[in-house]
Amino acid sequence: MKDTTPQPKRVLVTGVSKRQDNFDYTMIELGELAKANNLNVVGEVRQNVDQANHATYFGKGKVQEIKEQAIADDVDIILINDELSPSQIRNLEKELGISILDRTQLILEIFANRAQTKEAQLQVAIAEAKYQLPRLHPSDNKLDQQNGGGGGTNRGTGETQLELDRRLIDKRITKLKGELAKIDQQQATQRQQRDKNPVPVVALVGYTNAGKSTTMNRILQRLSPDTPEKQVFEKNMLFATLDTSVREITLPNQQKFLLSDTVGFVSKLPHHLVQAFKATLAEAAGADLLIHVVDYSDPNYLNMMQTTQETLESLGIKDIPMIEAYNKADLKPDTRYPEIDGTQLVFSARDEVSIDALIDLIDKQLFGQYPIIDFLIPYTEGQAVTYLSDHVNILEQSYEEDGTHIKAQINPDLLGPVQKYTMTTD
Ligand SMILES: Nc1nc2c(ncn2[C@@H]2O[C@H](COP(=O)(O)OP(=O)(O)OP(=O)(O)O)[C@@H](O)[C@H]2O)c(=O)[nH]1
Ligand SMILES: [Mg+2]
């Protein structure tokens, strides 16, 4: 019987180096992104020049070389390591006679395939529409047809069709943004409510597949083992997480914080996507502490760290205290873990001792600066004792003649209800 399962499309990974230091790495990553979207990488062509060609991205000779290799390897799609201009895509497709997929389109497709929640779907749809808008071409007669191909022969009627298509996409963007704004508003309200209750927020950030979700799950397992439903999705694939999940964590010393998992980054993350995910990343923007999770076992981890830093900065996320958490140490030969050096931690999310070390570090970073205060609470005011045991780190507790004596490390913002029981030490 004939096998009817569709074969994955065959792609040629191509790019112009532009003398970038991390070019090699971005090409390897492009291949990984292709595989993540079920494409079959059959070869690679590079051009080592300072600048991409304005009209066709590659120079004339290179275009010919790509064409020959594509025919020889029976290639369906030419994948390009940059976001191309609309005319570059058109010209190149015309010369090659093969479909072009640029890096941005590929990342958008992966995001679109992964998006589970309404919010993520809207964010991706907005980014896609914005990408499409300047790329509409008079010869395209369907909105969802990408890179129409062929020349624009039908100028007269095409022009009006183009205007119409643009208006339709504009309208679509406005509508999607409206829907997204409603969801964002709900979340902003939730955040505001939380802000009234001054529990610090810790956000896990970093490159895709670094182990952010795994780290979150292991911390939850250590500290809330009875609530497996709090676990988030973790998987060995690029962009497993597209939504922000927030969980409340209570430390053994009763201090509480909110831990948030966020979308992962990748090099050359499309601008429209970064903008579209801004609201999702608001959790990180408002955090008191960031945990930058790094896949330390990846030879390119330094590039990945730099990309993460740059992406955070492009989102205006800076000047937030950060723990650098070098993960997957179990996969890196001759590496001792857990090892702490200031705010840097070499660890493995799969190792309990490591997770305890990370929890300790978070505790110190968040609460280490809090003052230690003595309270004397009359026996008639039991609710004040309950308040303290629920909210603060009690260091000592004793029962004296005139009430309960409690020595505690406390967030000054939480002092209000128990202020009157503080003991002056003079
Ligand atoms: N060996 C090993 N594997 C790990 C470790 N931490 C995470 N992983 C694996 O790495 C893969 C990616 O982990 P995730 O936690 O989903 O990564 P993420 O950073 O949330 O990725 P995105 O959601 O795609 O941004 C999974 O297969 C994990 O099991 C570790 O310390 N050691
Ligand atoms: Mg994740």
From TrEMBL:
Its cofactor is Mg(2+). InterPro entries: G_HFLX_dom, GTP-bd, GTP-bd_M, GTPase_HflX, GTPase_HflX_N, GTPase_HflX_N_sf, P-loop_NTPase. One of its GO terms (cellular component) is cytoplasm. GTP binds at residues 206-213, 239-243, 261-264, 327-330, 348-350. Residues 135-161 are annotated as: Disordered. Keywords: Cytoplasm, GTP-binding, Magnesium, Metal-binding, Nucleotide-binding. The keyword Glycoprotein does not apply. GO terms for molecular function: GTP binding; GTPase activity; metal ion binding; ribosome binding. Mg(2+) binds at S213, T241. Residues 200-370 form the Hflx-type G domain. Signal peptide: none annotated. Its main location: cytoplasm. It is found in: Cytoplasm. SUPFAM superfamilies: P-loop containing nucleoside triphosphate hydrolases (SSF52540). Monomer. Associates with the 50S ribosomal subunit. Belongs to the TRAFAC class OBG-HflX-like GTPase superfamily. HflX GTPase family. GTPase that associates with the 50S ribosomal subunit and may have a role during protein synthesis or ribosome biogenesis. This is GTPase HflX. It comes from Latilactobacillus fuchuensis. The gene is hflX.
